[in-house]
Write a structure and sequence with these properties.
The protein is built from 13 helices and ten strands. It is of the alpha/beta class. It has one domain: NADP-dependent oxidoreductase domain (TIM Barrel, Alpha-Beta Barrel), CATH 3.20.20. An eight-stranded parallel sheet has the order 3-10-9-8-7-6-5-4. The protein has a two-stranded antiparallel ribbon with strand order 1-2. α3 links the parallel β4 and β5. α4 packs across α6, α5 crosses α6 and α9 runs parallel beside α10. About 45% of the residues are buried.
Length: about 400
């Protein structure tokens, strides 16, 4: 099932990767690093996509498709998000598949596992497992790392704890991960999600030896995948995303991710490795791309934060061959989370100003993201048949932007 690629995976030691991550995450800033070959990654030869054989599934005349990087998967420009997919609301997804959608995104965290169960029911009823690409994630993986450091933190004297907290904030400030326009909240409670990760980052130098190589990492990935396989009722996933929602570059530098993935791949349970990221997406994507280990990234990319990501997306796709899926494209201008409503009017005004026409703001937001040819698809929540009709109609459209 695997496609031949032109570049072999490069192995990094944990300490090598820590030094890369510490330099790579300045939001909106490209740091110039030199590889062992004496050139920066941007000066390397572009990835050769000519050697990648396209893999087609569920191709329909009304849908447009793009290659998902070096995986070769030809995925629909609109792909299915997992939030609305539950056992008693499968019809929108079924109709979307009939219209040519061929990529289903899921995670154990979505609806407490029922999204995976619902997708499984759809595929069992239709018999179309071989017509779609399936992606699941390792939900809570970053929490494994954070909890191990937190256990150490809780046993330290208060003055040491305070110093760690101060260092964690300094790291965030230096990297600019909280900069308005680069970071904003997509779901209630998101603003608290980075704190444990940066507490851990501030402790790596002194306490990393107590956490490195923990079997807990492998156990988390393995048990998560086994649970997802059982809920969906499939033998394999096309893509495994780990981490699910990486908060920082350090969370993609854990060698146990790669080692466990390699075993799962040998066992025929997964085909490709990916990750997703909402917080500091440029910094996380940069380090993931430089590792040469991740085939796919699903990252928060939209009309508001896009300027901070475009150079890194271009590098990850063109130089490293990664497939990039834009998520939170529409959530920059609309949200189903009542606690975050109403959406700030300036965001809506911006997308309406840039993208011409009379489309709804979320549809314009998808259309904006898809004009970037380094993006393979946008992920969309297809809550009902109206969402299916409207959002899938965006596929294949080309527009000329107005001045922003």
């Amino acid at each position: 099932m695997d496609k031949k690629v032109t570049k072999k995976h490069q192995r990094f030691s944990r300490r090598d990767f820590i030094s890369v991550a510490s330099a790579a995450s300045l939001a909106g800033v490209t740091t110039h690093r030199v590889s062992a070959k004496g050139i920066s990654p941007e000066e390397e030869a572009p990835f050769n996509f000519d050697d990648i054989a396209p893999e087609w599934r569920n191709q329909q005349s009304g849908m447009s498709y793009r290659m998902l990087g070096r995986t070769g998967m030809m995925i629909s420009e609109i792909v299915s998000g997992g939030d609305p997919v539950v056992s008693d609301n499968t019809r929108p997804t079924e109709v979307a598949i009939e219209k040519g959608l061929n990529y289903l995104d899921m995670a154990p965290a979505y609806n407490k596992g029922d999204t995976e169960v619902a997708y499984g029911k759809i595929l069992a009823k239709s018999g179309k497992r071989d017509q779609v690409f399936l992606t699941t994630k390792v939900s809570g993986f970053g929490g494994v790392r954070s909890s191990m450091y937190r256990d150490i933190f809780d046993g330290l004297p208060s003055e040491k704890q305070n110093a760690i907290i101060k260092k964690a904030q300094q790291l965030r400030d230096e990297r600019g991960v909280d900069k308005p326009g680069y970071y904003f909240t997509y779901w209630p409670g998101q603003e608290r999600s980075m704190t444990p990760s940066y507490i851990a980052n501030a402790m790596v130098a002194d306490y990393g030896h107590k956490v490195d190589g923990s079997k807990a990492y492998q156990d988390k990935i393995t048990s998560s995948v086994e649970g997802s396989l059982a809920r969906v009722g499939t033998d394999y996933f096309d893509i495994l995303m780990c981490p699910h929602g990486a908060n920082c570059p350090e969370e993609v530098q854990i060698p146990e991710i790669w080692e466990t993935y390699d075993k799962l791949k040998r066992d025929g349970k997964v085909r490709y490795l990916g990750l997703s990221t909402h917080n500091d997406p440029a910094g996380v994507l940069r380090v993931a791309a430089e590792s040469n280990r991740f085939d796919v990234c699903m990252c928060a990319y939209n009309v508001i934060n896009g300027g901070y990501l475009e150079e890194t997306i271009r590098f990850a796709h063109r130089q490293k061959g990664m497939g990039i899926i834009a998520m939170k494209a529409a959530m920059a201008v609309a949200t189903h989370h009542k606690k975050l409503q109403p959406t700030p009017q300036w965001r809506i005004d911006k997308v309406n100003r840039i993208v011409p026409g009379e489309l709804k703001a979320p549809m314009k937001a998808y259309l904006w993201a898809l004009q970037n040819k380094d993006i393979s698809a946008v992920i969309s929540n297809l809550w009902d048949l109206t969402f299916v009709e409207e959002n899938l109609s965006i596929a294949g459209q080309q527009v000329t932007f107005n001045a922003g």
